[in-house]
Amino acid sequence: MIKHIVSGVFFFFLSLIELTAQPLFSNSGPEPKYTKADVVGTPLLFEKTTVLDSTISKDVLFSRALKWYAQSFNSSEAVIEMEDRPGGQIIGNGNFQNLLKTGLAKEEDKIKFTVETYFKNGKARIVLRDFKSDEFELITDAPAYKIKGMSKRTQNRLWRETQESVKKNAQLIINSFEKDMSNPTDTW
Q: Is 130:43 a contact under the CB 8 Å cutoff?
């Protein structure tokens, strides 16, 4: 009998964990009612074409990009999957850490993505795509991750925070690429 009472109290407190993980007073209001269509979205994709001085050759931009890959991702060899100097194209993989806050706990989630760079004389283009998370798999623009279950509110909040983290980090990567393509690094 006592064993059943202890087990019942344990499960009662376990069920409260989901409730205490949420702020007691929230301006966001109740969780919207999502449908199956709300969890289907288009994979996030970011791209930027930088128009530079037309006298900068494709080969110079390619060399700048190789240096950018090495500096931005700590090792160009670990990142670059394919490089085609005559075609003006480099494809690689990158990643960054995303901190997920679930109530009192914090968990690091690695976001992996594909980086594509293209070059023509006087132009450089970067495309970031296929963002995948250890927690959520493919990151899309869907407004919700879950429509059912006890933890849907927390999962949907973490989903939206992960989408924002991807957007913020993608913009930082694009800005870094654009800066390094615009500024000559060989000034000696």
A: yes
Query: Is-contact 100 109, C-beta < 8 A?
Result: yes
What does the alpha-carbon distance between residue 101 and residue 106 come to, in Å, rounded to a whole number?
5
Tokens coding 22: 């949420």
**Averaged confidence pLDDT in the chain:** 81
Closest CA to 114 of 139, 85, 88: 139
- pLDDT for residue 144: 84
Dist. CA 96–CA 169, nearest whole Å:
8
The residues of the chain scoring below 50 in pLDDT are 3-4, 6-7, 9-27
CATH for 35-182, among 3.40.50.360, 1.10.8.60, 3.30.530.80, 3.30.70.250?
A: 3.30.530.80
Q: Read off the DSSP letter of residue 149.
A: S
Q: Where are the domains of the chain?
A: 35-182
Predicted TM-score (pTM) of this structure: 0.76
Q: 118 is written with which tokens?
A: 């293209």
